[in-house]
Amino acid sequence: MKKLWITLTYLVFFLLLIAPLGKMVMGAFEGGLGGLGDALARPEALHALMMTGLIVVTVTVLNTLLGMMMAIYLVRGSWMSGGLRRFLNSIVDLPYAVSPVIGGLMIVLLLGPGSAVGAFFEDIGFKIVYAFPGMVIATLFVTFPLMVREVMPVLQEIGAQQEEAASTLGAYGWTTFWKVTWPSIRWAVIYGIVLTVARSLGEFGAVLVVSGNIINRTQTATTLVYQDVENFNVISANSVALVLAAFSVSLLLLMEWAKKRREVR
Amino acid sequence: MHVEVRGLNKHFGDFHAVKDVHFGIEKGHLIGLLGPSGGGKTSILRMLAGLETPDSGEIRFHGELVNALPPQERGIGFVFQNYALFKHMTVFDNIAFGLKVKKTPKSQIKDRVMELVELTGLAGFEKRYPQQLSGGQRQRVAFARALAPEPQLLLLDEPFAAIDAKIRQELRSWLRELIERVGITSIFVTHDQDEAIEVADEIMIINQGRLEQKGTPWDIYKEPKTPFVATFIGESTVVENARELKGFEEAAGGSGTRALIRPEYIEVGGPDEFRVLSATEEGIVRHLHFRGSEWMVEVEVGSHKLMTYRSLEKDTLQPGQPVRVLVHRAYLFNDERSWIEENRLKVDPMPVII
Ligand SMILES: Nc1ncnc2c1ncn2[C@@H]1O[C@H](COP(=O)(O)OP(=O)(O)OP(=O)(O)O)[C@@H](O)[C@H]1O
Ligand SMILES: [Mg+2]
Q: So what's the ipTM on this one?
């Protein structure tokens, strides 16, 4: 009985993960190494990968800063009323509950050319939706809980006393943060960064809605794969997907390493 | 430093945690804050440190109002109950933290830290991390860290709570000596009245957010101002109706006066042990407990159970044995007032000269 379960688990694992991955690798090399090179050297492929890269970098920087700030406010912000803190705390989880496509749609509705805010920015020549800023906002929306939820428990665990001790010894906020708080939350932040990179690398739904998937303009790696598949351009789709998968695997390894470091701390 | 507190109040939501507290502390004194759990001791300490903002009231150091000063500017040292050491810093860096923040020159930092390491008996441990230290050693590090920037006021929140009884005793006298040597005004919170009585120049009893009494340990023991203080300090038995006690009938006046009697106010023994037998009552020994250096005797007098100690030098009593009981004095209190009363029969009106 137990054996059967184990076999079944392996089977599911194989069917869901290994088989498609193998198929993808094979698909990418169907036209040989040259075919892979050609697929990746297409201008739209290069542009899409660049777009993804830019989004990952921008979102990771923003999310790390915003997420850490949010976590610190939620855990230490005694100046906020308890009610406000509880409200913000549940808002943080919103992206987990809302489908990314809906999230993207909300951004289009709020900031698109049809809305007052969107129209205002359009007038001053700053396009948000169907442009880079919108895509960053959409990805930020999707990744927001990752950093906050990594850092908050660590802050709660270390408590405020070390920081209070630092303040009675004459250290102000910034010194206290760097000398006392940061060393304790460092590994949680790194773990959060890895999660954020992985998530923004693979984000599809929200970006698709917000970007409009305009080739050579707002197309990202994931939306390019989607388009290639639509066009039965199997080799190209697999090639780009392979690049994404390679990144994901290295991130996974990095994540394992970060997790171990975080545990030993 | 001279500390002055006037009309201090603190609410946590609807809860009134500190109620109209007044006190003054002289320079160089060591003050013990004593009281039951949840009484507001930590809250008072945190307000002095500037870690908590009072709702109303004044805090003055050297006569200057410091309410608006942040903790960084108050020149205080704070030792937390669980030490709150910087766990990713070595002992040396922990102690040096306050000096580094103040941009003290490197060589001076080293000298000062080494001086404190010597003083606190931590020599050889400078390179260790807090996790690699015992509870008592951590306590010393916390202490050295707080002292390093030469604060004018040292606040200690239950500094010995997490340390076992024996080392606690050692650390206690060590702390007392150290504070005397450094000559720093200090306030420490404790649950342990022996600790407060032994170490402090003055004790403040805090109960339900109020300062019940402030005074030297001896004053508080001898003349408790409120029934709470009387019951809280020392051991005691309460007799609901003081008039039923022999020698206190008149003093107790009307009904509703209760008596609080400490073991050392009571004497038990055979009839031959008392000079004025008429002042004693009859009682029966109920229990005897050996307390190492003396007997603890529970005796029943009428409907009351009283407790006292008896020297090992005297005849050993037996449970069930009838004895004479003399209540030398009692702390009487009713709804209006409380006072100390001596046994009126003790002074023989017609002394018989033998
Ligand atoms: N941050 C807070 N929020 C809400 N209530 C608090 C807070 N801090 C303290 N209290 C309440 O105020 C009261 C006094 O607390 P405080 O910590 O000063 O007591 P304490 O005398 O130090 O007790 P203990 O001896 O147990 O440490 C308690 O009833 C406590 O629940
Ligand atoms: Mg306390």
A: 0.81
